Amino acid sequence: MDNRTEVIQFILLGLTDDPALQVPLFVTFLIIYMVTLAGNLGMVLLILLDSRLHTPMYFFLGNLSLVDFCYSSAVTPKVMAGLLMGDKVISYHACAAQMFFFAGFITVENYLLASMAYDRYAAVCKPLHYTTTMTASVCACLIAGSYTIGFLNASIHIGDTFSLSFCASNIVHHFFCDIPAVMVLSCSDRLVSELVLVYIVSLHIFFALVVIWISYIFIFVTILRMHSTTGHQKALSTCASHFTAVSIFYGTSIFMYVQPSSTHSMDTAKISSVFYTMIIPMLNPVVYSLRNKEVKNAFTKILLKGK
């Protein structure tokens, strides 16, 4: 008999058991989620409505905003329900679905960041050939490839994790069904599954980081050769936003996944997870877009039309 069918639901312990912290945390996460929703969906809508933003850079930004909203939505509402109503139970299939969508969208973001780095390389290093390099078909292929790899990766991890036997504890020491947190509950040998997780995640992160670092090396060399102060400032401003978000995203991802689950505590994992499940999706519209003069002008134009 397959023992894994004995577990039909999981219990998410959440961030804290302290009743005094439940409401303050709920209010905090509600504000964060509302800002995430408004910022990311607002950015998608703004890009769709303003024809001046129909360029490769904003095409990637629009998809990044959509992905940020989606993977935050896969986690945050359930966390808030647990804090407000004490609803910590999640069914076996709902846990698998949450894990699938989170892993899928987080991998899509990984490749979107790499695609955006290549886009910035083309814009800064080869400005005269930018329109012929970043054509609509090239952008579409990069986006489609990101989504395809993302959900293929999620399917592999779901199959790998839920092929294990869950016949003992069903208490997940986390606030959502993250792969390492669920994997440690298995009563079967999980060494191979942990190695699959580490190696596949490492491969995805390594490939994306290679593209990002090579792009930035060429960008910084080009910036150093610029004689115009305005050109310096414009290029640095564009790259600084992307580099900041890349550092936060990959810092937490490497900390969480590129090591066996036994080498770090779940309490530490929870704190780190708050950053990439809630904080990063909230900050990305600000870091990437709201500092951009074109976005501000488009937003002002929409407001004036409304009046």
Walk me through this protein's architecture.
By secondary structure, the protein is an all-alpha fold. The chain is built from eleven helices and three strands. It has helices spanning 19-49, 56-73, 76-85, 92-125, 130-133, 136-161, 179-183, 191-225, 229-257, 266-290, 293-306, and strands spanning 9-12, 89-91, 171-172. The protein has a three-stranded mixed sheet. Helix 1 packs parallel to helix 10. It is globular.
Features:
75% helix; 3 strands; 307 residues; mainly alpha
Provide a short characterization of the protein structure.
With 307 residues, the chain is an all-alpha fold. It is 75% helix and 3% strand. It has a 3-stranded mixed sheet.
N-to-C span: 67 Å
> Main β-sheet: number of strands, strand sense, barrel status?
3 strands, mixed
Please provide the ordered H/E string of secondary-structure elements: EHHHEHHHEHHHHH
Low-confidence stretches are none
Give the proportion of residues in helices.
over 70%
Strand content: under 5%
Compute the number of helices: 11
Spatial order of strands in the largest sheet:
2-1-3
Number of strands: 3
Based on helices, strands and strand pairing, what is the structural class? Answer: mainly alpha
Q: Kindly provide the radius of gyration, computed on alpha-carbon positions and rounded to a whole number of angstroms.
A: 21 Å
Mean pLDDT, all residues: 85
Tell me the overall shape: globular
